[in-house]
Model the fold of this input.
Amino acid sequence: MEKLIITAAICGAEVSKEDNPNLPVSALELAEAALEAEKAGASIIHLHVRDEEGKPTQNFNYFEKAFAAMKDIGVTAIIQPSTGGAAGMTWEERIQPVSLNPEMATLDCGTVNFGDEIFVNDLPLMRRFAEEMKERNILPELECFDAGNIYNALLLNKERLLSEHLHFDLVLGVPGALAASIKNLLFMVELLPPDATWTAAGIGRWQLPIAIHTILMGGHVRVGFEDNIYYSKGVLAGSNAQLVSRVVRIANEVGREIASPSETRKILELTKDGSK
Done:
């Protein structure tokens, strides 16, 4: 099998320190969490940022500080900023981090219910984001919360708005979107183009079961505090690195090697500076 790419979603937009005091929030905390996760085996750091009050923000300056802190501390993993932000943000707010010209960024591929809120991603917005990323030679990670999201991504590809290499992230278990189950994971994967790469993320208690099955299916894995703050039932995770280390151990048990940051760049057809 292809070596396993592990993405660490270290912060997210919904979790707070009240939920888990180990959540990284400041630029330095994010950098330290990223480095720990990389040392544990992560090769992609999925990045949200927070303001001084710990609230989610897409402000360019906060992303810039986090990127700089990660560089200063020696992070070599791919830093993948979110353009999803939080429900209710405008597209102008959400698109800001692509101005940093990262190697990758997320591109959400459909409007979905997020609990009591609506996360709006209509086709005009998706096209706008895709065009911006293509112009800057940024590989979009195609975030899919339901089956229809995959078809939206394939439409963008048909319209020649995406990179030559397609990389999907199948996010299962968001309240209001497709439920997390092994049956639904298989269903989603069967819809993907055969030459695409894919990552899967299970929300909450489904993080570990989805990760285990994804390892065996040849996909790639996302774990971290954004999706799950617990290590086991009722036991808070001590760090993102702890969640990454468990995936590494399981992958090693079944003979699947872990991709380094440089190997991940080759798998995703990236180079260090983000050029193809």
Q: What stands out?
A: The domain at 6-267 is CATH 3.20.20.70 (TIM Barrel). The CA atoms of residues 27 and 68 lie 9 Å apart. The two ends are 23 Å apart (CA to CA). Residues 27-40 form the longest helix (14 residues).
